[in-house]
């Protein structure tokens, strides 16, 4: 059976690997040198304009000639002039350099647009008690960056990151959902608190896990980092008296005397100092957690997101991170 030869546009292999464009097309620096020689009529003046030595310029032209397989420049004591092939290559080079400059301008515009905004999603405790200070510090570094902050529970933060609604997130739970990378930025402790009039406020003996689990509590909703930590500490036996979707609402209910609650010590420092709430000592229960920055796997924050991450980690000396 006879076969016809492949056409020039055919994808059939000739038996030898085809060299890539990177090996067949001169680099931008060489093309810019050739354009300068054409404009100035001198290899030496072209070298000076580009900030390289004349020997380096000569070497670059010779390398380009070897790469293309044609002579590009005729050199003489009176200067340098392009060969016929050199003039044709110079015409092509001008188009390539113009396209590269347009590409660079477009890439710069993308960087400026990226750096002009930052979308942050943070779980409630971090959003209310840590994020304001971090964002004030970021503003001194990047005054022209507009920052939007979306607050929600840890599950909502993960959802926003995975759907592309946020660039950087902060969560408080024990685990991080798949598809996200993470790094620890701070540590936190949960405390059991009541209003001063609650019977627990007068107890002398530390509260045990069994009694805490048997007592209806004012709690954050399921999916929040605070609830995850408490459920893990009590084996999922925490009993909600009221479930609320914000730390501020939980704290206000506890201050009103509605019942005991478990909250981050970041959230109740002012109330404890003013004796509007009382911390109840605990025994047998570990209520510590790590606060994490998270982002979509393989897309480590850049620009203002990278700067915010550095600011948060500056206060987490010794904290380690891992990829999820």
UniProtKB/TrEMBL annotation:
Entries under InterPro entries matching the protein: LysR_HTH_N (IPR000847), LysR_subst-bd (IPR005119), WH-like_DNA-bd_sf (IPR036388), WH_DNA-bd_sf (IPR036390)
Region (Disordered), start-end ranges: 1-20
Keywords: DNA-binding, Transcription, Transcription regulation
Domain HTH lysR-type: 26-83
Compositional bias ranges of the Polar residues kind: 1-13
Highest taxon of source: Bacteria
Pfam family, one: LysR_substrate
Family affiliation: Belongs to the LysR transcriptional regulatory family.
This protein's name: LysR family transcriptional regulator
Phylogenetic lineage: Bacteria, Bacillati, Actinomycetota, Actinomycetes, Kitasatosporales
